[in-house]
Specification:
Helix content is 0%, strand content 54%. It has no helices and 10 strands. Strands 1, 2, 3, 4, 5, 6, 7, 8, 9 and 10 form a 10-stranded mixed β-sheet that branches.
């Protein structure tokens, strides 16, 4: 199942993922592996405080890697710390719900290669609560589990 799970202070929200892509950006000595997801409102399970304001969250993460070999991705584990707090801006790890927020403590596990360009990915991270931006609620934990398509034609601007 391809889904985004948001563990919030008041319960769990679940969103079906409609797009999950990976691609590389850069050159051999300066290479970044990007992960992007998009969700849909259809079939989403928001909490009571967000159900009146439909959202279709998305996330993106870029992690510098030393080398890239498509057939060596399965079994890989990656970590990207992200920013120290929500006031710092981040362009490598962002979560969009109603507004964009930095993602911290990103962990990527690629347990399997399902086919030539499809990889199972587990991605977890932390971010500010999706409906309270004044730091009066605990951080939310984001869990993403999806089959990511490696797009070798994708170029990030």
């Amino acid at each position: 199942m391809n889904q985004l799970i948001i563990h919030r202070f008041n319960g769990i929200e679940i969103f079906p993922i409609v797009t999950a892509k990976m691609f590389t950006v850069g050159k051999v000595n300066d290479l970044t592996l990007w992960f992007e997801i998009e969700t849909t409102e259809q079939g989403a399970q928001p909490n009571s405080d967000t159900s009146n304001f439909p959202a279709n969250p998305n996330a993106e993460l870029g992690i510098k890697i030393a080398e890239f070999k498509l057939n060596n991705l399965a079994g890989m584990q990656l970590h990207y710390a992200g920013t120290d707090n929500d006031r710092e801006d981040s362009c490598n790890a962002l979560f969009y719900y109603y507004d964009h927020q930095p993602l911290r403590d990103n962990h990527i596990i690629i347990p399997a290669q399902n086919s030539l360009n499809i990889f199972r990915v587990h991605w977890s991270a932390r971010t500010q609560d999706v409906n309270y931006y004044d730091d009066n609620k605990p951080e939310a934990r984001i869990d993403i589990e999806a089959n990511f398509y490696y797009d070798n034609n994708r170029v990030k601007d």
